[in-house]
Amino acid sequence: MIESVFVRWFGSNPVVHGLVGGLVIAGLNLFGASLIFVWRDPSKRALDGALGFAAGVMLAASFTSLIIPGIETYAGGNPIPVLLGVVLGALFLDRSDGLVPHAHFLLTGRRRDDAADPSESLPVDDRLAPVVLFVLAITLHNMPEGLAVGVGFGSGDIAGAIPLMLAIGIQNIPEGLAVSIAAINAGLDRRAYAVFTGIRSGLVEIPLAVLGAYAVQTISALLPYAMGFAAGAMLFVISDEIVPETHTGGHERIATLGTIAGVVVMLYLDISLG
Predict the structure, then answer these.
(1) What is the pLDDT at residue 125?
(2) Alpha carbons 274 and 265: distance in angstroms, whole number
(3) N or C: which terminus of the chain has fewer CB atoms within 10 Å of its end residue's CB?
């Protein structure tokens, strides 16, 4: 029923579906970023729990909506294309850290030994460096999500793409709030600028969703590789960014419970809608 309603509203063009998916997840990112106006000072405990939930959603979605259908449906049971995509997606995010510092550095100010050095990786005016680095880091963080939604709709499997879109949109809400907080920590001391940065971080998801849908529609052989790439990039963000950040403030238990809740929600969406 949901699939037929979606087609009735938006037609049958998978690229248009990718655009719709990108708009939905970017809109929910904006909603999350705007929560800074009503939830002005969220506790670290609450934020860790919310980010743990986001990680759980992304973790389950990586397997149920990308890796497993990529292997079983679009690679004819051959795991190699999807697994190669997973490796390439993770490597892309890993090498990107050579340009900008890990996103958690911008959230907390604590720089890991393996993170890029802001003073060396991007030589810009000292007054602008924190803002530019912040924008680049959050852009890299959001890229896999937009790509995943676009690839999902580009596959033509609307029944599977809709729960993926909803799940990534839901996890974008706490992530968008974290973006606003990070914008303040990065030197954007006015809340209007923080929300503007939240809008910008979500906007990258729209063209990538369209690009992902168009690419796999144009070159269908790319689909299992693209699904693996999106999954690998999301898994990298979960393990390298979100989990370490949520386990540094003494709130490991609430972050873990949030992760489990995110997995449960995504699995329910996948089964009930897909």
Answers:
(1) 46
(2) 13
(3) N
- Hey, what are 172's tokens? 């974008």
**Quick one: pLDDT at residue 118?**
47
Contacts of 137 (CB under 8 A, 6+ apart): 100, 101, 102, 103, 105, 106
Give Cβ neighbours of residue 10 (< 8 Å, ≥ 6 apart). Answer: 16, 17, 20
No. of helices (H) and no. of strands (E), the chain: 14, 0
pTM: 0.77
Contact 221, 35 (CB under 8 A): no
Q: Cα separation of 193 and 240, whole Å?
A: 27
List the one residue out of 89, 70, 69 whose CA is nearest residue 270.
69
Q: Mean pLDDT of all residues in the chain?
A: 78
Give the mean pLDDT of 84-101.
81
Give dist(CA 82, CA 68) in Å, integer. Answer: 9
Other CB atoms closer than 10 Å to residue 129's CB: what's the count?
17
* Phi, psi dihedral angles at 97 (to 5 degrees): -65, -10
Give the residue, 2 or 232, on which the prediction is more confident: 232
Name the nearest CA neighbour of 246 among 42, 47, 48, 46.
Answer: 48
Q: What is the DSSP letter of 110?
A: P
d(CA 216, CA 17): 13
Q: Which residue, among 156, 142, 238, 175, has the nearest Cα to 28 in the 3D structure?
A: 175
Residue 71 pLDDT level (bands cut at 50, 70, 90): very high
How far is Cα 205 from Cα 56, in angstroms, rounded to an integer?
A: 20
